[in-house]
Design brief:
Blueprint lengths: L1 H26 L4 H29 L7 H15 L4 E3 L8 E3 L4 H19 L5 H25 L5 E3 L1 H23 L9 H7 L7 H29 L1 H11 L3 H13 L1 H13 L3 E3 L4 E3 L2 E3 L8 H4 L5 E2 L2 H4 L3 H13 L9 H26 L11 E2 L2 H86 L21
Antiparallel strand pairs: 1-2, 1-3, 4-5, 4-8, 5-6, 6-7
Helix pairs in contact: 2-3, 2-4, 2-5, 3-4, 3-5, 4-5, 4-6, 5-6, 8-11, 8-14, 8-15, 11-15, 14-15, 14-16, 15-16
């Protein structure tokens, strides 16, 4: 029995080895080494960019708390945080490690852009789509290798990275961004998907994707713009609290610049939070406080930060806070407007379906953005910080569908009315042109008839004058011609 088990294990090992070798040979192409190097370079540039910013603040600080090693540690922490990885603060008052899971969305733009460009460059020289996929895989491998080194480097210290979170988020972000760049570079080829997915998508006509996408994008854009506007209004209405927060956090110029840089990096997060506030559910400030247009509930335990200093205090909502509901109403109108094509050729049912699908997609997109913009800022009371993705997605879909569908139907009627009116005006102009042409022809014939009659009368008068002249020349002995109606001359009268 033991011998049979050993033989079976050996066969299994050989099978696994063959599969791994076959996969390696399939992935190993002429573009493998340049792609892997491109992934390493993209990660290095991202780390370098964060290191430059942190080192600048460290150099300008009059009393730095740590040396060069600590500054590089913070740069690597920020780079991993930009990919969505969680950080852990070990030195806390309670002694309990506190997670930091709120990702500044503006920090994610730089590494994602580097990955997108690296994916496009890796796929450009590939001869086939399979070779391009292999190059992207090697690119992701190089990027993840550098990220693994950064995670090991930041695995200890007062603020350390969470290895499990980094291992989940960094490869996912790298795969999505690099694959998107390669897909765009290769001319957006068909992506093989499961048969179940194709059975659903094949039922959707290709012409419906454009209006639905435009509708969803318009709704999300209006919601984010409205959320950013609400954040700006809150900061303007609370200038004293915001300025005092800057002065309390740091007295040195470098420290205030660091706070300002972090505030700027969190502006997209604030826009998402403002959109969730305008939708109605609001956002949580810990486990015991919620802020919404109806009012702020609870006594939140907030860190001293400028963006948080502008939040309303506990109490019922006011007229100004209820005006925030205009943002999702405008978003619903925008979603319905862009769900209708210019010619308004779709029927009522298709137009309503486009607006409904666009509103649903808007809710899904806002839910994903909320998931990225929220997270824990500590343990205990700060374990839940930000809007709920489920409530924000449901509210966004509800607002845009309820308002977007009637708006789309009204816009469709207006555009069809405009098209029909333009067609009527064109037809009327053609009829008027034809009528003018006919009237001109009739006038021409009348003028021609009148001119012809005048010419005939004039010719008849000339003939009579000629006959009279001939009679005068012939003398009195000439008899009148038959049928001329004149009396005979007295010279020939027998009397």
């Amino acid at each position: 029995m033991a011998a049979w088990g050993a033989v079976t294990a050996a066969r299994a090992v050989r099978l696994v080895f063959r599969r791994v070798r076959a996969a390696h040979e399939a992935l190993l192409t002429a573009e493998s080494v340049p792609a892997f190097t491109g992934g390493v370079l993209a990660a290095g540039l991202g780390l370098g960019g964060f290191a430059v910013l942190v080192l600048f603040l460290w150099i300008t600080s009059p009393f730095p708390d740590s040396g060069l090693y600590g500054a590089l540690h913070i740069a690597a922490d920020c780079w991993l945080l930009a990919h969505g990885a969680d950080l852990v603060r070990v030195e806390t008052v309670s002694g309990v490690p506190a997670p930091v899971g709120v990702t500044p969305l503006l920090l994610a733009v730089f590494p994602v852009w580097l990955l997108y460009r690296a994916g496009a460059d890796a796929a450009a020289p590939a001869s086939t789509d399979r070779a391009a996929a292999s190059a992207v895989a090697w690119l992701i491998g190089g990027y993840v290798a550098v990220a693994a080194g950064a995670a090991i480097f930041t695995s200890y210290g007062p603020v350390r990275s969470d290895a499990l979170s980094a291992g989940l988020h960094v490869p996912l972000v790298a795969a999505l961004a690099a694959a998107a760049g390669a897909w765009a570079e290769r001319g957006r080829p068909h992506i093989p998907l499961p048969a179940a997915f194709h059975r659903v998508t094949d039922r959707v006509p290709a012409g419906e994707i454009g209006p639905v996408t435009r509708s969803a994008a318009a709704g999300v854009a209006v919601l984010l713009a409205g959320g950013a506007a609400l954040t700006a209004v809150a900061l303007v209405l609370h200038p004293g609290a915001t300025g005092a927060s800057f002065s309390r956090l740091s007295e040195a110029l470098s420290g205030r610049l660091a706070v300002l840089a972090l505030s700027v990096a969190l502006i997209p997060n604030a826009a998402v939070w403002g959109a969730a506030y305008a939708l109605g559910p609001g956002f949580a400030l810990g486990t015991e406080a919620v802020v919404r247009p109806a009012g702020a509930v609870g006594d939140p335990v907030l860190p001293d930060f400028p963006l948080l200093a502008a939040l309303p205090h506990a109490g019922p909502g006011t007229v100004l806070t209820w005006l925030a509901l205009l943002v999702p109403a405008v978003a619903g109108v925008a979603a319905g407007w862009f769900a209708v094509d210019r010619e308004a050729s779709a029927g009522l049912g298709r137009t309503a379906a486009r607006a409904a699908l666009g509103g649903t997609a808007c809710g899904v997109a806002l839910g994903l953005l909320t998931e990225l913009a929220a997270g824990p800022l500590g343990s205990g009371a700060l374990a839940d910080f930000g809007p709920s993705r489920w409530l924000a997605a449901a509210a966004a879909a509800g607002w845009t569908v309820v308002i977007g569908v009637p708006t789309a139907l009204v816009v469709r009627w207006l555009r069809r009315f405009r098209v029909s009116r333009a067609a009527y005006e064109d037809t009327y102009d053609e009829w008027a042109d034809d009528a003018d042409a006919a009237e001109g022809a009739e006038d021409w014939f009348e003028d021609a008839d009148a001119e012809g009659a005048e010419d005939w009368d004039a010719e008849a008068d000339l003939d009579e004058d000629d006959d009279a002249a001939d009679d005068d020349k012939a003398g009195p002995d000439v008899e009148p011609r038959a049928g001329d109606g004149r009396k005979q001359s007295t010279a020939t009268d027998p009397v």
